[in-house]
Design a protein that fits this description.
Layout: H1 37-62, H2 66-77
The structure holds zinc ion (ZN).
Length: about 80
């Protein structure tokens, strides 16, 4: 079952657990309900990796000839 985090004060669903207060009522969440510092660091790292990957893919796709796209595709399976 998917766990949905809810504000204990106004009971609305919180989609971004990285914020420290409720977007709706301003309730300050107990730290235990939020991501730990380690979690945040890990998420930040993932974000960075993702955006770097996307930037790379963007460059490849931006090259606009099909050949380079296919090369990139083949690379993925070549490990
Ligand atoms: Zn709230």
């Amino acid at each position: 079952m998917h766990f949905q985090f809810k504000c204990p004060e106004c009971n609305r669903a919180i989609y971004n657990r990285r914020v420290k207060t409720c977007e709706f009522c301003g309730y300050q969440f107990p730290v235990a309900l939020l991501y730990s510092e380690d979690d945040k660091k890990r998420l930040d790292e993932l974000d960075k990796k993702e955006s770097r990957k996307r930037a790379k893919e963007g460059l490849k796709l931006g090259g606009s000839d099909t050949g380079s796209f296919i090369d990139g595709f083949a690379d993925c399976g070549g490990d």
